[in-house]
Each structure stands twice: as structure tokens, then as C-alpha cells.
Amino acid sequence: MTSKDHSNITAAFFDFDETLLAIDSAGIGFKVLREQGYLSRAFILKMIIVMLLKKAGFINEKIMANAMLSFYRGRDLQPFIDSAEDFYLEYLRPNLAPEVIKKLRWHQKQGHQTVLVTGSIDYYLQPVKQDLGIDHLLCTHLEMGPDGLLTGRPNGPVCVGDTKLILAQELAAEQGLDLTISFAYGNSELDIPLMENVGYPVVVNPTAGLSRYAKKQKWSIL
User: Fold this and answer.
1) Domain boundaries along the sequence of the chain
2) Which end of the chain is more exposed for a tag (fewer CB within 10 A), N or C?
3) pTM reported for the whole predicted model
4) pLDDT tens digits for the chain (222 residues)?
């Protein structure tokens, strides 16, 4: 806890995939990696099976995220960092959701602290944060092994579900943010824990499950 804890600062938390970004960044990322020859047939088959199991409800988002992260096992992080800005400019920036960007700009004009909170990976989110002038980034980090190569595992928890809320609460304590007067924008059930704990939850392009829940709670739908 810091002396900032009672500052009553308003924040706006934005999910990334299919919220601030109109598409799924992991999907486009793996498409690009496939075109560049990074993905083996075995890995592609594995991900097809994982996605089918996820769609059928047999596995959750965390299991799917860990399966995706296994792609990085034994790889050097630096080439991915080096290509992150080009990836953002070519594939992500053209797909930013205009209506949500307007909300982001409104919050910035009000002097609110803006936060990107997402299960996506830090290295390709840094250009997003810098270009959009977002104050804080809460996301998934890649674990580095003692040999300097990636392990294919997350460093810390994957930033989905309850983890989003925990990280947001930690940030609030550090920065003096007041969640009761803050906003959260999200598109899936995994955003519910955070959205339930802010004063102004806003649903964007919702999944069927979040849409039903939001209507019961009478949350705003963008």
C-alpha cells in the first residue's frame, strides 16, 4: 500500500482481443507465423484439436493459452521483439475497433489512467501501448530459461479471468486507482471478474455468455 491509495483516481481498463482490437491477435499472429514457416504440421494439428476442444467446452481459456505458449519453447525472444512493431503496424493497427478507440481517447481527455489488461503476450503489446498512449499494461509474460531461451511457459499466471482482477487490484493499490469509479471494457465471460468490481462495466462485441450475463446485470453494451 502506498500513500496514493486514497487518491480516488479513475481508471479505464480495456481488454485487447475483440475489444480494443476488432479481431483476435493470436489468430492473426499464428497465421503470420505459419506463412513465415515457423509452425510445424504437428503444432498446427495440436492447435486445431485444442481449439475444437475449447469450442466444445471441454477445456478452458487458460489451457488453450498454455497450449499456444508451447510454440515458444526453445526459441530466442529477441527476433519476436524486433518484429513486434512491424506486426503491429501491418496487422493490428488497421484492425483497432474505432468505437472503442473513441472511448479510449475520451478517457484520456478526462485525465483517467488507461490500462490494457489482456491474456495476450507482452512483446507484441508494447507497440500498442506506446502508439495509443496507454498508461499501464497488464498481460501475459513469457518465461525465460537459464539458457536464455524461452521455456514455452508463462512467467506468472496467464492474464485471464480472476488473474485480470488480481492484477488490476494490485495496480490500483500501487497507483491509487479507485475501482468503484473506474471503467472496464470486455467481450467475454473471462472479463466478468474485473467488470464486476468496477463502477462502470461496458460490454463490447460480447460472447453469448457475456451478453446474457450483462443483460441480467443491466450493464452498458457498446
Assistant:
1) 3-221
2) N
3) 0.90
4) 333 444 689 999 999 999 999 998 888 888 888 888 888 888 888 888 887 887 777 777 778 788 889 999 999 999 999 999 999 999 999 999 999 999 999 999 999 999 999 999 999 999 999 999 999 999 999 999 999 999 999 999 999 999 999 999 999 999 999 999 999 999 999 999 999 999 999 999 998 889 999 999 999 888
What SS3 string covers the chain? CCHHHHCCECEEEECCECCCECCCHHHHHHHHHHHCCCCCHHHHHHHHHHHHHHHCCCCCHHHHHHHHHHHHCCCCCHHHHHHHHHHHHHHHHHHECHHHHHHHHHHHHCCCEEEEEEEEEHHHHHHHHHHHCCCEEEEECEEECCCCCEEEEECCCCCCCHHHHHHHHHHHHHHCECHHHCEEEECCHHHHHHHCCCCEEEECCCCHHHHHHHHHHCCEEC
